[in-house]
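Ticket #4471: structure output looks truncated?

Reporter: J.K.
Steps to reproduce: submitted the chain below (472 residues) through the standard prediction queue, then opened the result file.
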Amino acid sequence: MARAMLTLLIALAAFGANAQTRELPDFTVLAEKQGPAVVNISTTQAQAARRNVPQMPNIDEDDPMFDFFRRFIPRQPGPGPREFESRSLGSGFIVSGDGYILTNSHVVDNAEEITVKLTDKREFKARVIGADKRTDIALLKIEASGLPTVRLGNPNSLKVGEWVVAIGSPFGFDNTVTAGIVSAKGRSLPQENFVPFIQTDVAINPGNSGGPLFNMKGEVVGINSQIYSRTGGFMGLSFAIPIDMAMEVQAQLRQHGRVNRGRIGVVIQEVSKELAESFGLPKPAGALVNAVEKGGPAEKAGVESGDIILKFGGKAVEASGDLPRMVGNTKPGSRATMEIWRKGATRELSVTVGEMPEDRVASRDPGRGRQVERAANRLGFVASDLTAEQKRDMKVGGGVVVEDVRPNARADVRPGDVVTAVTSKGQTTEIKSAEQFNKLVSQLERGATLTLHVRRGEGTLFVTVRGETGRG
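Returned output as attached by the reporter:
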């Protein structure tokens, strides 16, 4: 009897120990130690005021209707558009005690004034050292010293399922702590070819953008950048930029003010199971080349449309999204080897990597010396009419050219693409002008699926837009 009782007590003790290990983790120490290095970022920018108020018609004061219009329709003061200041909120974190701060590029995009607020209520004006739209990273500087800083971790050691914590300012609520797990690693998102995102289910909302993602050691492993949402709010899908990539970008921004990237001049697509079978490839892998830039590095190296790039610089290209990152991280002017699949066999080519042109900035208003940003359409890019010369060169009767793509664009298009038609609900509409195209897009129902007919270089492709993507 005594032995049985002793066995029962040991079993209960073991059950209690196991139950303790199954308890949720405690984030209090992490929040207390790392919170002071997380900052709130607010920006101010001037925008043209929208005039949705009906204007009083230009009629004579003796007209019987003049008094009616005077009483019920206000006059618009002064000629030309008025301007007002809008404030946007985001997050950031201090990476060095002398005032360098990392955040998202879209948080400070087109900002005329940036204010950084610390947890001790001190506020500083910040200047942008550099911003890289392709990775959505911006480096800020405030004039201060002895600031608290974050510790950096290794995102490559993250495991799917492990706990992570975000600290930021969702909707302006400073130093808000949320937690979740790593849902996936190495995610590729539309129009985000250079970032292998960390996917989490941490609650991220507008204002969290640019804030840090911590592992349970209190080390920053990512920068919270995007959410996937049909409502504009959190729906369990959040994406963070790996911190090792962010630090490489910030190093170039600090030294040069911009990021130098390699390019080889190809348009690629994913290799599906069906494509692999048709090309005689043993398994779906690599990047299928569907267009080669005339006179570009790839053409000079002997790359042809229909080639499948299996390796670049000695590293395997598992998916097409791997290639832009590999090429982009290669120093312009250097030589790299490529293994390609052509006509059922592999061959090796050597390419001299070119330099990717810097993002075209918005045009400057010569009267004010500040940036004037053209409004993007609902899909997140700026479209303009084709010139007669462009139509002649491309042998098209209509369409619109993509001039600029915002970081939160929902369509996987690139500057220089030409949208010639749109298919929705089984109906195809040819595009004749930017006004017609933007109006068509604005009238689409929320959550609708549409397909853009796109000319890219010498080739054509179809870009399908589903759901909605929003920023955190």
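Triage note (M.O.): checked the attachment and the full token line is present. The longest strand covers residues 83-96.
Status: closed, working as intended.
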